[in-house]
Known about the structure:
Elements: H1 3-8, H2 13-20, H3 23-35, H4 37-42, H5 49-76, H6 85-102, H7 113-141, H8 145-174, H9 181-206, H10 224-229, H11 234-263, H12 271-295, H13 298-322, H14 325-336, H15 341-361, H16 366-394, H17 408-429, H18 437-459
Transmembrane segments: 16-37, 49-74, 86-105, 111-130, 158-179, 185-207, 235-261, 273-292, 304-322, 328-346, 367-397, 409-430
GO molecular function: symporter activity
Family: Belongs to the sodium:galactoside symporter (TC 2.A.2) family.
Amino acid sequence: xxxxxxxxxxxxxxxxxxYCSLTIPITAVGMPVTTxxxxxxxxxxxxxxxxxxxxxxxARIWDVITDPIVGVxxxxxxxxxxxxxxxxxxxxxxxxxxxxxxxxxARGEPASAGALLFQLLVLYTGWTFLQTTHQAWGADLTPDxxxxxxxxxxxxxxxxxxxxxxxxLPALLGAWFSxxxxxxxxxxxxxxxxxxxxxxxxAFSLVPDKSITPVIADRPKMTLSQILSGMKExxxxxxxxxxxxxxxxxxxxxxxxxxxxxxxxxxxxxASSILLIFFIFSIVGIPLWLWVSxxxxxxxxxxxxxxxxxxxxxxLIPVLIWGSLWQFIALVAxxxxxxxxxxxxxxxxxxxxxxxxxxRTNINKAGFYFAFMGTSYKIGQAAAIGVSxxxxxxxGFNPEVPENPDHRMGLIMVFTLVPVVIFGLxxxxxxxxxxxxxxxxxxxxxxxxxxxxKDGEAEAPVTAG
Length: 465
């Protein structure tokens, strides 16, 4: 493809930022629901840890089940004015209305387990519509191999920025208002209810809702057999396997970080500040990995990212055993440089697989593929908690006494060596990945030629026989 042809498909910066802004409300759902809501409802809400654990487990199972269903809906049914915006708009009432009930429970009154479960199911359904459709929309916006990496890289940068904002929101508002646990959660509910409509308005106003290849009127609809046939491509399973592994690696670091901060580094306070540093460096690191991807291939850049994470985790071992707090903070910052890059590169790779599948079947399955990406990451995060907590249980670790010296070395090994193995596996899975820059360019050329042929047939005059 010529350079001018490539340039035509590059998104203007204002459209790129408008598209990525929707990642902020996506983050505003995930972070509070998993971090702030369970303690509030278990403690002041009076439901207890066991009930809250069961309710949130059911909600996450529901979330995983609805992923592929939403993906098929997003691909199969299209609004006459566009492919994606209708489904994103549908998420607004599901998320905003639910936020007022879920994030603002009655103060001083016992919470209802049934009401909490119902609200979580509605919230997760809206979240799935928003997140899945938003990623599928990104695959529609540009056919360029490197521009897709840039788009999803900016998306991950905005996601990390949203996480920083959510983490600091209580402290920022606390400078002017007096907050308890109810107030903290309510502020996040108001944030979601205000930011989601605003970012949707910005994105809908500035970003087009159209396919990079024209939608053909007689294009076949997705059936169950076609959905299953789309999962026969081995390269897709390799991407999903890496997504699961990344979810495990990141999840183990996240789920055991506070144990390490308290039990190994002796930090009673300040662990959240280190997390802020981690996310700041993740924003800084993504452009670096996009630069590597442009000069090599996406899968090679992904292998280098995983190798970098592997080395950082190995370097943490001597620091955790003999090093100082400042050395620990420095290595956490360096590890943060690689945090968002795997998700960005993997989503750009699955967007290329959408093209490959459309060449094969003449059906765009972006929603379905990105839904399975979401499911894979959730499976990885769930497995991370299961694996890390099981290993810690085997060594007799007590989370109430993380500083126990008898368990110190075991805790360090779980925190570092398990991610090392996981990232090493990612490197092996990505070896000889077949969908390279040249192959993707040929797929795009095939789709353009096919669409031009269909347009020519539609415009050809009908002669009488």
